[in-house]
Each structure stands twice: as structure tokens, then as C-alpha cells.
Batch of 4 targets.
Target 1
Amino acid sequence: MIITKEQVAQAIITELENNYNEIDIETGLFKNYNTPSRIVWKSNKEGFYPDIKISQTNGKTNLYEIELTNKINENKWRLFSMFAKLHRGSFYVVIPESMIQKVKAFIADKNFNNIKLLSVPI
């Protein structure tokens, strides 16, 4: 069985909606939600859209990147990690279970300290 990005996103959104009252959910993966704004580097204007952006009434913002392939986009992850940290939130990366060790080593090597890993069985 192949798991899609949309299936993973729906599971995350359902979990968040069931556990938090005052949150704003943005995602470009479904039509019934607003698409999050592009997050950009000020230095070169390069930017990316997070898969899911969660804004809480207390000012915290969490970002979610669902990466079901073996790709690691260092620039995107660094940007999202810094953005979440500036907004008192966390950056979650959802990856296949088979990538856990590779991604943990990458995170340690690059000294990313605001990334939280979630895994899905694929």
C-alpha cells in the first residue's frame, strides 16, 4: 500500500483538530483550507511553501513538511526550522520509517536543533 502526502496531511490535521481548540490550519493540499504564505530568505528571496502551517492563539507557529521520498532539502529545512523558532514553534518533518537514521544523522551533522521527526510506515 502506498501512502500519499494527502493521507498523511489529513491524519495530522485530524489529530490537531481533535486536540487543540484555538488553532488556524493552513495547507495547500486541500481546497477547504487557506494556502500558507511562502516563507522566504530575506537575503536572496528564495522561498518555499510549508505543507501545513499551524498558528495558535498564543502566537506559536508550527510547520510541517511531509517528505515521503529520500529527498532532503537542506535550505528548505533550515528556513522552516528558523521560521518556526522565531515564532516560538517547532518544525516537524514527516518521513518514512526507513529514513529515520539517515535523517537523524543529517540533522545532527547540520546542527538543526528545532526539527522534530515524525515517521510513517511505508
Target 2
Amino acid sequence: MAQSWTAGWEIEFPARTRNELLAALVVRDLVHGATFDVETEDGSAEFEVDYEAGEELQDDVYRLLIAAEVRGPEDHAMLGAFTEQMMEESIEEAESLVAEGVDLGTAPFDEVSFETVGEQDERWDLVVPEWLAPEDAEIPFGFRPARGGEWWPDNARLDAHGRIVVVPHDGSLHLVGLPAPSDEIEHSDAGS
């Protein structure tokens, strides 16, 4: 049975503008739940890695908190090199997705509530910052924004986009529709 071990990182992103925060939230969405089977270029080692991502916002800085659960040889340098490559590709994809973003509306922060939802109402295609979650909500999908007694965005609007991201900025909440992330990025090789 392969040995299991963990590692973690904290990566800071600027969050001064709505688009900077949007890009950081998309990176978190791409990283959280990502699973890879990795083999070094020379074939000398293989491991499986599962990533989870958390986040926090302080002033104009967004912190992405990454945890990796690894099954395979404990090689922090190899995992670090692979994670750096994975992050570079995730940031590039996030920038590409954000460039195709569509503004879907804005609401004053005080007009929107955040409601805990059961598993049947969870939407993996809705990206909401964790710090907006009610205390008893499962992170990241166990809560949704509501406005005027209705889900905001509603299911039909979610179905029309690959992702919808809720971006808090300047006292308002902004909905941004994005294409679905590509599944074409291959993270199969780590540096030797």
C-alpha cells in the first residue's frame, strides 16, 4: 500500500479590482478537488495527488490556501515542482476564462442573503467566496446567494453558463458568467 502524506501552500493574489478578485476565485475553483496521477519524466517515481483549496481575503490581498494529500513516495521537491506547474497552468486558464466573462448583473450587498442548501440544491458550477458562507454551510458548495426570496442566480441562468462567479467588490455583488473550464490541460508529468 502506498504511503500517504500531506503538504500545503499559501499563495497571494492581488485583489484590488473586480477582475483581479474574479481571476483569483476562478483559480481556486480550478484547484479545489483537482486529482492527478503523476509520473516523473524519467519514470523513476509515481504518485497520486488530491488538492483542496480554501481562501481568505484581507484588504486588497486574496490568499489561496492549498492542501495536497499525496499517495506515493514522500518527495516534497517533486510535489513542489508539480504543484508550481499545475498552478501556472491554472492561472493561465483562469485568465483565459475571465477574458471571456460576461457581466450578468449586480446587486447591492445588503439585498443578497446567503442560504445553506442541502445536497440536492448544491451547484458545482456556482463559485461563491467561502467567507460569505453561513456558519453551518458545507464549503464550497453547501450555500447559495438569494435575492428577493429567489436563488440569485437561478438554476436556468446557471445552466446557460459553464460557471457563474459571485464577486464581491465595492459594496456590491457582481455575477460573471464564464465558459466551462477545459479538461484538456494534462498534468501528467512532473520535472525530474
Target 3
Amino acid sequence: MIHVFILGYNGAQYLSNWHSQVKFEKDIKFYYIDNGNQSLTPYLHQLFHYKSSKNLFCSGGWNLICDIAFKSLELDKIIIGQEDAIFTDEILREISNQTSPSRICGTYDRSFEFSLFGIHSKTFKDVGRFDENFILGGNEDNDYKQRCKLKNINIISLNISADYNISITGGLRAHYNNINSNYLHKKWGNYINAENRIYEYEVPFNGKKHDKLDFEYKKYFDLTKKDTKFMSELEYKLYKTQNI
């Protein structure tokens, strides 16, 4: 069985329109995780699995999906996608075939691998959780790519045109682009090789102490100094209470 988790935010209707027109075999199981408190279409009710209590951002949504998949459902590997990333049955099978403990398989070209990607439970355990300090979305994938390199985990792409990924959420996070870029470079330094995304530091923040929850993250959620858990960690506890 191929398990595909779709993280929703503001494209429920768009997903319903294109996904319902594609033929998928019965050995592909879909889960819809709504991260935007949307009204679900009748079609999405067939895929629906969980609605988060608040927007967890892209990284937080991915972490919640991995917690659900690897901890609660005890799956070995999954595919994570989004509402606006169009794919076929054949694409999902190739992603699944190419995904292993030492390889993340993405789909699209132009550095959009993480719009639809396969990840193994062992990879998630070895590399760790996605960094939720990236506000809404942007650069969380570059951070994870760097961490994968340091663990000798390859990230490949099927190099399917990114035109199939229309990025309908892009405008919502434009305000935080500079904040996310500054956080990324504070964490990993500048590029040594910009083309291959190789950074100065081999350890986060060059070994300097840094709070787990960044200042901007706490500011966004109005958290206090005593708060030490990311939103996805709290949300997974809530998920478990509803799915005992």
C-alpha cells in the first residue's frame, strides 16, 4: 500500500477539482490533513483524516503528518504533498519506489522537490523534525536539504515540470521571506557554493547556543519564555486524544 498525505491550507476546492479527475488504483491510500480550518468539499470528506486546531505552518504540518504516519499508524514510508501539486498514479509509484532510508525522492524541477516527496521513517528519525521556526513557509526545505547532506542522505527529483505545482499559497508567506532567509543564514551561515546549496557551518548556528523556539516564532504565536514546545508537538497530543 502506498500512503499519501496531503497537507491542506487554502486550496481544498482546487484539490477536489483536479484530484477527482485522476484515476488512482486501490493500493494508493490518501489522507487529507487540513492545516487551514477550511470547509471541506463532499469529495474531500472521503480523504479527510484530521483538522488541526490552528495553522502549524508548512514545517509543523509536515511534522504532524510524520508523527501520525510513523508513530500512530506505524508506517515505514509515506508521500507528502499539497493541494496545488498535481500528480498521477504513475508519479506516486515512482516516488514510492525511489524512496528509501538513505534517499528522499521529490517530484518537481526548479528546486520544488518538497512540493511532493517521499520520506522513510528512518530518515525522519535520523535527520530529525522539520524546523518550525520558518514562519508559514519558505526555506524550511533548504534547511532540511542541508541536514540531509550532513547525514549522507540523498535528495533526488523526478524532474517533472514545476508548472504542475502552481503555489497558490505563495502570496500568503511573502511578508516573511526576509525573516525566513535571515533565520536560515543565521543557522547555517552563507553559501560556499550557491548552486549546490552548500553552507559555511556543519553544525547549526556554528555551535553557538540558540533557543529551540526562535524569537519570531514565539512572537507569531504570542508565546512566553517558558514555552518550549512547537505547535506540532502540542497538536499531535491533541490528535492522540481524538484518535484513541
Target 4
Amino acid sequence: MTEHEPSSSEKDWGNLRFTPRRPRYAESAPEDNAQARFVVGLAVFVVVALLYPWYAYWVQTHLLARDVQQATRAIDSQLRHELRGVGEQARKAAVQSPQAASRRRVRGVRVMGAMATKGVPVVIVDMGDASLSEGTAGICSQAPSWLGRPVSGMTLRVQAWRGRAPSESIGSVVC
């Protein structure tokens, strides 16, 4: 063999042509990838669209529960504060003497009107929290200005004032 003569194995390599390899699916590959991306995107969109209402409901219920808990805490705090204030007032009221409470109730007695009749005069009185026996002194001191005459030694028939409702008889007092 000479240098210039190719061997049989070299002869086999001589008729090869090197061209870029083209796969059979190369022309349709971009379309297939686009279709696959579109299908994946559509599937994700549909899943999100189906799950969103439940997610929104879940979020709203948790937010509402949180708001209700905050409101409950605020109301509880306010009620505790008010109860402390009421407790202090109750202690102060318990410390006050019963005579001071009686004087306060007597100050609330007001004569609202009076009628001089042939028999016993009638006095209409807003008693407040006082009883008839507690309010006797206040009734006897206010009645002369309504009746236009002194009432000492007189018996007065007392009716309770009830605003727009008719008054009702609660007894009589002797001044």
C-alpha cells in the first residue's frame, strides 16, 4: 500500500456527507410546545377559578371571626370598667348613712298640683323613691302654695302623679 492509496476502511469513510441532522418533528415542535403551554395555562386558570370562591369564603370567615373576637374583647373591657365604677358607687352608697339616703329621697318629693274640695283637699304628688310617710313633711310644706291657705292640722288626700296617665290615690297625710 502506498501512501496515496486509501485502505478499504478509509474508502468507506470517503463517501460520507456531513449535513446537519434534522429531526422529523422539527417543523412541528414549536406548535406542540405552544399547545402544551396553552393547555397547562388553561388548566391552571380553571383550577384557580374553581378554587377562588372557597378561598375567598375561608378568608372572609376568618376575618369576621377575628373582628368578632376583637369586638368582644373591647366590650368585655368596657363592661369590666363599668362594673368597677358601679362597684365603687355601691360601696360609697353603703358607706352613706340611711338617714342621708332618706333625706335624698325626701328631696325628690314634689307637689305637682292640688284641688280644694268641700271635703278633704286633694294633692297630686310626684313621690320619686320616697314612701308616703317619708314624704309627709315635703307635702305639707309645698301644699299651702298650691291651695292658697295654711294646711297645718289638716288632712290631705294624696294621689301619685304618673305623667300623662291618670293619678292614683296612695293614701292621706295629716299636716
